[in-house]
Design goal:
Elements: H1 8-12, H2 22-36, E1 48-55, E2 61-68, E3 74-80, H3 94-104, E4 107-112, H4 123-137, H5 139-142, E5 144-154, H6 156-170, E6 176-182, H7 194-202, H8 204-219, E7 242-250, H9 254-266, E8 271-280, H10 291-305
Parallel strand pairs: 3-4, 3-5, 5-6, 6-7, 7-8
Antiparallel strand pairs: 1-2, 2-4
Helix pairs in contact: 3-10, 4-6, 7-8
Length: 307
Protein backbone atom coordinates (compact mmCIF):
# COMPACT_ATOMS: atom_id res chain seq x y z
CA UNK A 1 0.00 0.00 0.00
CA UNK A 2 1.63 3.22 -1.21
CA UNK A 3 0.18 6.61 -2.09
CA UNK A 4 0.76 7.76 -5.65
CA UNK A 5 3.64 10.29 -5.47
CA UNK A 6 1.54 12.75 -7.48
CA UNK A 7 -1.00 12.79 -4.66
CA UNK A 8 1.42 13.33 -1.79
CA UNK A 9 1.78 17.16 -2.09
CA UNK A 10 -1.99 17.53 -2.58
CA UNK A 11 -2.76 15.56 0.57
CA UNK A 12 -0.11 17.44 2.52
CA UNK A 13 -2.04 20.67 1.94
CA UNK A 14 -5.29 19.27 3.33
CA UNK A 15 -6.29 20.32 6.86
CA UNK A 16 -5.51 17.63 9.42
CA UNK A 17 -8.69 18.15 11.44
CA UNK A 18 -12.22 18.29 9.98
CA UNK A 19 -14.36 21.38 10.64
CA UNK A 20 -16.11 21.23 14.02
CA UNK A 21 -19.70 21.40 12.73
CA UNK A 22 -21.48 19.64 9.89
CA UNK A 23 -22.44 23.00 8.39
CA UNK A 24 -18.80 24.03 8.23
CA UNK A 25 -17.86 20.62 6.86
CA UNK A 26 -20.33 20.96 3.99
CA UNK A 27 -19.19 24.49 3.20
CA UNK A 28 -15.53 23.49 3.24
CA UNK A 29 -16.12 20.46 1.02
CA UNK A 30 -18.08 22.46 -1.52
CA UNK A 31 -15.49 25.24 -1.57
CA UNK A 32 -12.76 22.67 -2.14
CA UNK A 33 -14.73 20.95 -4.91
CA UNK A 34 -15.13 24.28 -6.68
CA UNK A 35 -11.45 25.13 -6.22
CA UNK A 36 -10.17 21.90 -7.78
CA UNK A 37 -12.70 21.67 -10.63
CA UNK A 38 -10.88 21.98 -13.92
CA UNK A 39 -7.56 21.48 -12.16
CA UNK A 40 -7.60 18.18 -10.28
CA UNK A 41 -11.10 17.09 -11.26
CA UNK A 42 -13.03 17.59 -14.48
CA UNK A 43 -15.50 20.27 -15.33
CA UNK A 44 -18.72 19.25 -17.06
CA UNK A 45 -17.93 18.60 -20.74
CA UNK A 46 -19.39 21.17 -23.12
CA UNK A 47 -21.18 18.38 -25.00
CA UNK A 48 -23.34 17.59 -21.95
CA UNK A 49 -26.39 19.65 -21.03
CA UNK A 50 -27.35 19.94 -17.37
CA UNK A 51 -30.64 20.74 -15.74
CA UNK A 52 -32.20 20.33 -12.32
CA UNK A 53 -35.59 18.84 -11.58
CA UNK A 54 -37.60 18.54 -8.37
CA UNK A 55 -39.29 15.23 -7.65
CA UNK A 56 -42.62 15.69 -5.94
CA UNK A 57 -42.48 13.76 -2.68
CA UNK A 58 -43.32 14.29 0.98
CA UNK A 59 -40.01 16.14 1.03
CA UNK A 60 -39.19 17.30 -2.53
CA UNK A 61 -36.02 15.72 -3.94
CA UNK A 62 -33.70 17.61 -6.27
CA UNK A 63 -32.04 15.68 -9.07
CA UNK A 64 -29.47 16.94 -11.56
CA UNK A 65 -29.73 15.47 -15.05
CA UNK A 66 -26.75 15.22 -17.40
CA UNK A 67 -27.68 14.56 -21.03
CA UNK A 68 -25.18 14.16 -23.88
CA UNK A 69 -25.78 16.02 -27.14
CA UNK A 70 -27.95 14.30 -29.72
CA UNK A 71 -31.60 13.32 -29.78
CA UNK A 72 -31.76 9.57 -29.16
CA UNK A 73 -32.86 7.12 -26.51
CA UNK A 74 -30.10 6.18 -24.07
CA UNK A 75 -29.35 4.03 -21.07
CA UNK A 76 -29.31 5.87 -17.75
CA UNK A 77 -27.44 5.82 -14.47
CA UNK A 78 -28.96 6.90 -11.17
CA UNK A 79 -26.00 8.24 -9.17
CA UNK A 80 -25.76 8.92 -5.43
CA UNK A 81 -22.91 11.21 -4.35
CA UNK A 82 -20.52 10.55 -1.49
CA UNK A 83 -20.05 12.55 1.69
CA UNK A 84 -20.54 10.21 4.61
CA UNK A 85 -24.35 10.62 4.62
CA UNK A 86 -23.85 14.06 6.20
CA UNK A 87 -22.29 16.11 3.40
CA UNK A 88 -21.58 16.04 -0.32
CA UNK A 89 -23.82 17.39 -3.07
CA UNK A 90 -24.73 17.01 -6.71
CA UNK A 91 -22.55 20.03 -7.47
CA UNK A 92 -19.47 18.42 -5.95
CA UNK A 93 -20.02 15.43 -8.25
CA UNK A 94 -20.60 17.52 -11.39
CA UNK A 95 -17.34 16.71 -13.14
CA UNK A 96 -17.52 12.97 -12.58
CA UNK A 97 -21.16 12.73 -13.62
CA UNK A 98 -20.52 14.86 -16.69
CA UNK A 99 -17.53 12.76 -17.71
CA UNK A 100 -19.52 9.54 -17.31
CA UNK A 101 -22.45 10.92 -19.32
CA UNK A 102 -20.21 12.08 -22.16
CA UNK A 103 -17.92 9.06 -22.18
CA UNK A 104 -20.61 6.40 -22.13
CA UNK A 105 -23.28 8.41 -23.98
CA UNK A 106 -25.76 7.81 -21.17
CA UNK A 107 -28.10 10.02 -19.18
CA UNK A 108 -26.91 10.45 -15.60
CA UNK A 109 -29.41 11.42 -12.91
CA UNK A 110 -27.65 12.56 -9.74
CA UNK A 111 -29.83 12.65 -6.63
CA UNK A 112 -29.53 15.25 -3.86
CA UNK A 113 -30.74 12.98 -1.08
CA UNK A 114 -31.46 14.29 2.40
CA UNK A 115 -28.53 14.39 4.81
CA UNK A 116 -28.02 13.58 8.46
CA UNK A 117 -28.30 14.81 11.17
CA UNK A 118 -31.23 16.99 10.10
CA UNK A 119 -32.82 14.01 8.37
CA UNK A 120 -32.21 10.79 10.32
CA UNK A 121 -31.96 7.34 8.78
CA UNK A 122 -33.59 6.21 6.50
CA UNK A 123 -34.43 9.57 4.89
CA UNK A 124 -31.48 9.56 2.46
CA UNK A 125 -32.06 5.94 1.55
CA UNK A 126 -35.74 6.62 0.90
CA UNK A 127 -34.83 9.51 -1.41
CA UNK A 128 -32.57 7.31 -3.53
CA UNK A 129 -35.39 4.77 -3.80
CA UNK A 130 -37.90 7.43 -4.83
CA UNK A 131 -35.46 8.85 -7.38
CA UNK A 132 -34.87 5.42 -8.91
CA UNK A 133 -38.59 4.88 -9.42
CA UNK A 134 -39.00 8.43 -10.74
CA UNK A 135 -36.26 7.80 -13.31
CA UNK A 136 -38.02 4.65 -14.47
CA UNK A 137 -41.46 6.27 -14.58
CA UNK A 138 -40.22 9.38 -16.44
CA UNK A 139 -37.87 7.55 -18.80
CA UNK A 140 -39.64 8.64 -21.99
CA UNK A 141 -39.46 12.35 -21.23
CA UNK A 142 -35.80 11.98 -20.18
CA UNK A 143 -34.88 10.22 -23.43
CA UNK A 144 -34.12 7.03 -21.52
CA UNK A 145 -34.82 3.37 -22.23
CA UNK A 146 -36.49 2.06 -19.04
CA UNK A 147 -35.07 -1.39 -19.76
CA UNK A 148 -31.48 -0.10 -19.62
CA UNK A 149 -31.11 1.36 -16.16
CA UNK A 150 -28.08 1.29 -13.87
CA UNK A 151 -27.60 2.43 -10.29
CA UNK A 152 -24.42 3.50 -8.56
CA UNK A 153 -22.64 5.94 -6.36
CA UNK A 154 -19.52 6.82 -4.46
CA UNK A 155 -18.70 5.94 -0.86
CA UNK A 156 -21.83 6.54 1.25
CA UNK A 157 -23.76 7.01 -1.98
CA UNK A 158 -22.70 3.55 -3.13
CA UNK A 159 -24.01 2.20 0.17
CA UNK A 160 -27.41 3.78 -0.46
CA UNK A 161 -27.42 2.62 -4.08
CA UNK A 162 -26.65 -0.98 -3.10
CA UNK A 163 -29.55 -1.06 -0.65
CA UNK A 164 -31.89 0.53 -3.21
CA UNK A 165 -30.93 -2.17 -5.72
CA UNK A 166 -31.78 -4.90 -3.20
CA UNK A 167 -35.08 -3.19 -2.52
CA UNK A 168 -35.83 -3.03 -6.26
CA UNK A 169 -35.26 -6.78 -6.45
CA UNK A 170 -37.42 -7.53 -3.42
CA UNK A 171 -40.28 -5.12 -4.09
CA UNK A 172 -40.66 -5.44 -7.85
CA UNK A 173 -38.94 -2.14 -8.55
CA UNK A 174 -37.21 -1.13 -11.77
CA UNK A 175 -35.27 -3.93 -13.46
CA UNK A 176 -31.62 -2.89 -13.27
CA UNK A 177 -28.93 -3.95 -15.73
CA UNK A 178 -25.88 -2.76 -13.78
CA UNK A 179 -24.63 -1.75 -10.35
CA UNK A 180 -21.61 0.58 -10.37
CA UNK A 181 -20.08 1.06 -6.93
CA UNK A 182 -17.09 3.34 -6.29
CA UNK A 183 -15.12 3.33 -2.99
CA UNK A 184 -18.20 1.74 -1.46
CA UNK A 185 -18.98 1.38 2.23
CA UNK A 186 -20.78 -1.92 2.82
CA UNK A 187 -20.04 -2.78 6.46
CA UNK A 188 -20.58 -0.33 9.31
CA UNK A 189 -20.06 -2.83 12.10
CA UNK A 190 -16.91 -2.78 14.22
CA UNK A 191 -15.47 -5.80 12.40
CA UNK A 192 -11.80 -5.40 11.52
CA UNK A 193 -10.44 -6.41 8.13
CA UNK A 194 -7.05 -6.05 6.49
CA UNK A 195 -7.65 -2.68 4.85
CA UNK A 196 -9.02 -1.10 8.02
CA UNK A 197 -6.11 -2.39 10.04
CA UNK A 198 -3.60 -1.13 7.46
CA UNK A 199 -4.98 2.40 7.53
CA UNK A 200 -5.28 2.35 11.31
CA UNK A 201 -1.61 1.38 11.56
CA UNK A 202 -0.21 3.72 8.90
CA UNK A 203 -2.65 6.67 8.72
CA UNK A 204 -4.41 6.79 12.09
CA UNK A 205 -5.86 10.29 11.59
CA UNK A 206 -7.44 9.20 8.32
CA UNK A 207 -8.79 6.05 9.96
CA UNK A 208 -10.32 8.05 12.80
CA UNK A 209 -11.95 10.50 10.39
CA UNK A 210 -13.62 7.59 8.60
CA UNK A 211 -14.75 6.14 11.92
CA UNK A 212 -16.21 9.52 12.87
CA UNK A 213 -18.17 9.51 9.61
CA UNK A 214 -19.60 6.10 10.46
CA UNK A 215 -20.40 7.18 14.00
CA UNK A 216 -22.41 10.18 12.75
CA UNK A 217 -24.59 7.87 10.67
CA UNK A 218 -25.15 5.53 13.59
CA UNK A 219 -26.01 8.46 15.83
CA UNK A 220 -28.66 9.43 13.28
CA UNK A 221 -30.50 6.14 13.78
CA UNK A 222 -28.65 3.74 11.50
CA UNK A 223 -28.18 0.30 13.10
CA UNK A 224 -24.89 -1.18 11.83
CA UNK A 225 -26.36 -4.69 11.97
CA UNK A 226 -29.29 -3.73 9.75
CA UNK A 227 -28.63 -4.87 6.12
CA UNK A 228 -30.09 -1.53 5.00
CA UNK A 229 -27.07 0.05 6.69
CA UNK A 230 -24.49 -2.69 6.14
CA UNK A 231 -25.53 -4.41 2.90
CA UNK A 232 -22.66 -6.86 3.30
CA UNK A 233 -24.89 -8.44 5.98
CA UNK A 234 -27.75 -9.03 3.53
CA UNK A 235 -28.46 -12.77 3.69
CA UNK A 236 -29.41 -13.18 0.03
CA UNK A 237 -27.59 -11.32 -2.75
CA UNK A 238 -28.87 -13.48 -5.59
CA UNK A 239 -30.86 -11.98 -8.43
CA UNK A 240 -29.00 -8.67 -8.44
CA UNK A 241 -27.68 -7.11 -11.65
CA UNK A 242 -24.15 -7.36 -13.02
CA UNK A 243 -21.90 -5.38 -10.68
CA UNK A 244 -18.65 -3.47 -11.08
CA UNK A 245 -16.87 -2.40 -7.90
CA UNK A 246 -13.97 0.06 -8.05
CA UNK A 247 -11.87 0.41 -4.90
CA UNK A 248 -8.95 2.57 -3.79
CA UNK A 249 -6.00 0.69 -2.35
CA UNK A 250 -5.25 3.34 0.29
CA UNK A 251 -8.66 3.17 1.90
CA UNK A 252 -10.02 1.56 5.06
CA UNK A 253 -13.13 0.44 3.17
CA UNK A 254 -11.17 -1.19 0.32
CA UNK A 255 -11.97 -4.69 1.50
CA UNK A 256 -15.69 -3.92 1.71
CA UNK A 257 -15.75 -3.98 -2.09
CA UNK A 258 -13.65 -7.14 -2.25
CA UNK A 259 -15.93 -8.92 0.22
CA UNK A 260 -19.13 -7.73 -1.48
CA UNK A 261 -17.87 -8.88 -4.88
CA UNK A 262 -17.10 -12.31 -3.41
CA UNK A 263 -20.59 -12.53 -1.89
CA UNK A 264 -22.22 -11.54 -5.18
CA UNK A 265 -20.18 -14.05 -7.14
CA UNK A 266 -21.07 -16.81 -4.67
CA UNK A 267 -24.74 -15.88 -5.16
CA UNK A 268 -24.45 -16.26 -8.92
CA UNK A 269 -24.28 -12.55 -9.76
CA UNK A 270 -21.66 -11.51 -12.35
CA UNK A 271 -19.38 -9.24 -10.32
CA UNK A 272 -15.91 -7.82 -10.77
CA UNK A 273 -13.78 -5.74 -8.42
CA UNK A 274 -10.74 -3.70 -9.36
CA UNK A 275 -8.47 -2.20 -6.73
CA UNK A 276 -6.46 0.80 -7.92
CA UNK A 277 -3.00 1.18 -6.33
CA UNK A 278 -1.94 4.58 -5.07
CA UNK A 279 -5.42 6.10 -4.92
CA UNK A 280 -6.78 7.40 -1.60
CA UNK A 281 -10.50 7.42 -0.73
CA UNK A 282 -11.93 10.63 -2.17
CA UNK A 283 -9.28 11.15 -4.86
CA UNK A 284 -10.59 8.64 -7.39
CA UNK A 285 -12.00 11.47 -9.53
CA UNK A 286 -8.70 13.40 -9.78
CA UNK A 287 -8.52 12.88 -13.54
CA UNK A 288 -6.49 16.07 -13.96
CA UNK A 289 -3.71 14.67 -11.80
CA UNK A 290 -3.70 10.89 -11.72
CA UNK A 291 -3.44 8.67 -14.80
CA UNK A 292 -5.04 5.94 -12.69
CA UNK A 293 -8.09 8.18 -12.16
CA UNK A 294 -8.47 8.27 -15.92
CA UNK A 295 -8.43 4.47 -15.94
CA UNK A 296 -11.04 4.52 -13.16
CA UNK A 297 -13.31 6.72 -15.26
CA UNK A 298 -12.81 4.45 -18.27
CA UNK A 299 -13.94 1.46 -16.22
CA UNK A 300 -17.17 3.32 -15.43
CA UNK A 301 -17.63 4.27 -19.08
CA UNK A 302 -16.99 0.76 -20.37
CA UNK A 303 -19.42 -0.82 -17.92
CA UNK A 304 -22.19 1.60 -18.86
CA UNK A 305 -21.48 1.35 -22.57
CA UNK A 306 -22.06 -2.40 -22.27
CA UNK A 307 -25.74 -1.82 -21.37
Amino acid sequence: MQIDPLLVPVLANQPSDPPPTVEELRAAELANARAIAGRLTSEIPASVSVRDESIAAESPIRVRIYTPAGDRTRAALLFAHGGGWASGSVEAADGHCGDVAAGADVVVVSVEYRLIPEHPFPAGLDDVWVALNWLHDHAAELGVDPERLAIGGESAGANLAAVAAIRARDEGGPALQLELFEVAVFDLTDSMNESRQEILDTMPDFARSMEATRDRYLAAGADPHDPRVSPLLEKDLSGLPTTLLLAADVDPVRDDSVAYAARLTAAGVPARVRVFPGIVHGTESFTGLLPSAGEWLQECVDALTAI
